[in-house]
Specification:
Layout (H helix, E strand, L loop, with lengths): L3 E7 L15 H5 L7 H17 L3 E5 L7 H6 L9 H8 L10 E4 L9 E5 L6 H4 L2 H11 L6 E4 L14 E5 L6 E7 L12 H10 L7 E5 L2 H6 L8 E4 L2 E5 L6 H11 L4 E5 L6 H7 L5 E4 L6 E6 H5 L1 H12 L4 E7 L2 H4 L9 E6 L12 H14 L12 H17 L7
Parallel strand pairs: 1-2, 4-5, 7-8, 10-11, 13-14
Antiparallel strand pairs: 1-15, 3-4, 6-7, 9-10, 12-13
Length: 418
């Protein structure tokens, strides 16, 4: 079968707002209380998907979840009228747009039973994300319903936090080849919580039937977490045989690099020195929260990264030198995802990578230009233009958000997700 990597982007939902719900996420904290622009945000996300299609890449998408989450509020014995402001905001969050946190994915080439395994993330560290997983797993089980090719697992139970693919990397000689899976966990980060627990990573590796000699468990640097790298994908990204990482990403970098090279001698590790781009630069620009992708036709790799990286002189200077050399990354593709960035989500946050034969996926979740045109029309017609934080809970806004999502489900023939 023609196995390839498909990037599934989360369509940015109509309730996208800046309530500042995510401690340790600098952008989220710094923009708390600002007005968001859901329509512009979602259209920016659609344009990023178009950019990937134009590079010749396979592209998919996921639907926004139902918001506000009335079932979760009912479990808390409240509703959008009676709930305290922080609970109301958590129920209204559009954070499922960051599909990198949807699940951890192990391709069929890595697993004992020869199926692609997906484990939905529990996201229990943050209240506003902790209630996402049931809606997400329902969508995963629909998109990847063929049990001959896929196994979709429920979330790891509490108390072990799991944030999905944002703390998981895979190195391989080709997407269809057996890979080395790297699970990155945290311990502490100064005033900020470490969101990925090693026990969650170990449980997922077992559930996915991975060979122990093809798995590494690596600690994220406490310094990186304290600086605002709340997920590993803020400071490192991998694709096929290449690891692209900040010098200060891992607690024991040289030990990590040695373990990678021992397990996979073909690995190429590209390290950005801290004296060229500081942790602060990396986090402000989301240099590493980029889509590192393999271009068709042997054209090397491209890095799809936010415009903020181009606007940071230190970061762009180093990147320009890198692509001018003889390294594996040959092309830089800046994209505008400013609305997502303002809440702490770059291009890599917006997508979940799944290696499989596209013909085995429910075609309703696969993108092409015509389908994106229709989705963009729905967004332009129904998404709120602006949301101020004090509007959260407003009855008219809730009706608009729910109507907008229903219109999107209708155009994509995904009524099962109502």
């Amino acid at each position: 079968m023609p196995v390839t990597e498909i990037n599934f982007d989360g369509i940015i939902g109509p309730s996208h707002n800046y309530a500042g719900l995510s401690p340790g996420n600098m952008a989220s904290a710094n923009n708390a209380g600002a007005s968001s622009h859901p329509r512009a945000a979602a259209l920016q996300g659609i344009e990023k998907m178009r950019s990937n299609l134009r590079l010749g890449l396979a592209q998919g998408f996921f639907m926004p979840l139902d918001r506000p989450n009335q079932k979760w509020l009912a479990e808390l014995a409240t509703d959008m009228i009676s709930a305290e402001p922080h609970i109301r905001a958590a129920a209204f969050s559009a954070s499922a747009m960051w599909a990198a946190n949807a699940a951890t994915v192990s391709p069929a080439a890595d697993t004992k039973d020869g199926r692609c395994h997906l484990s939905v993330a529990n996201l229990i560290t943050m209240a506003h994300r902790s209630h996402e997983w049931r809606g997400t797993v329902a969508q995963l089980k629909l998109a990847f319903a063929d049990e001959a090719y896929f196994a979709v697992h429920d979330a790891v139970p509490p108390p072990y936090g799991d944030e999905g693919a944002a703390n998981h990397m895979r190195l391989c000689t080709g997407h269809d080849a057996s890979g080395l899976e790297i699970f990155v966990y945290g311990k502490s980060g100064g005033p900020f919580p470490a969101r990925q627990h090693i026990e969650s990573s170990k449980a997922i590796a077992r559930a996915h039937q991975l060979s122990p000699d093809r798995v590494l468990f690596v600690q994220q640097a406490e310094e990186a977490i304290a600086a605002g790298a709340f997920h590993n994908d803020v400071v490192a990204v991998a694709n096929e045989h290449v690891l692209f990482t900040h010098e200060l990403a891992f607690e024991k970098p040289e030990e990590t690099y040695a373990a990678i090279r021992d397990a996979m001698p073909e690995a190429e590790i590209v390290v950005v020195p801290a004296n060229r781009a500081s942790l602060a630069d990396a986090i402000q620009s989301y240099l590493f929260n980029a889509q590192l992708v393999t271009l068709p036709g042997g054209a090397g790799m491209a890095l799809t990264l936010p415009m903020e990286a181009k606007e940071n002189d230190a970061v762009w200077g180093w990147l320009s030198e890198m692509v001018a050399g003889n390294g594996p990354i040959r092309k830089l593709v800046p994209v505008n995802v400013r609305e997502s960035m303002a809440n702490g989500g770059g291009p890599a946050c917006l997508r979940l990578r799944v290696v499989c034969d596209p013909a085995t996926v429910d075609p309703r979740f696969i993108a092409d230009e015509a389908k994106l045109d229709k989705i963009a029309e729905v967004i332009a017609a129904h998404w709120p233009e602006e949301i101020a934080v004090d509007q959260i809970g407003d009855a008219a806004l809730i009706t608009q958000v729910q109507t907008a999502r229903t219109a999107l489900l209708d155009i994509c023939a995904l009524g099962e997700l109502v």
